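seq as requested:
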Amino acid sequence: MLEKIIAMLIGSILLSLGVNGFLIPYHLLDGGVIGLGLIIHYFYGWPTGLSIILLSLPLYVLAWFFERRYFFYSLHGLVISSFCIDVFSFINGRIQIGILPSTMIGGLLVGIGIGVMLRYETSTGGTDLLAQLLTKFTNINIGIIIFLIDGLIITSGIQVVGLEKFFYSLLTILCVGFMTTVTVAGRPQTH
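struct tokens:
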């Protein structure tokens, strides 16, 4: 249990550093509920973490009724990561390295953060939770479902961030996906 808590904290801090230090300063998007939270942040100015929690509520209601194990595994990760995103918002704009390096570093940090949490069977919930539920009922590969959802989300943000930042955001989700995969690959065996 202690390992899971430490993994949630480390993963959440890395995720929040990636979002606040590298994505938000350049109005870049990520996929999933984080991406939707960023769209709301850019458009309305609402705190990103709070937006993520509010957007995730319907998914958690579904998980409660259809797969409580997913509900319990990801609830703590959602709350801690969303809290960290809002707490670390003070670093927004303090790192100025250009849009391309920020795209890649932000994606790598977010991917490592998510991967660390997934290694210890926790997550930020969100659309990953939706993908787990859809995979259970459709037998479609979870990676394909996540990629499709992420693509739809960043496409929906084109009007908010513009076409150029849309393409940088595509690179971001590729970096997130790559680092999540690499980080989860060394997943410890659970019995």
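The CA atoms of residues 23 and 106 lie 6 Å apart.
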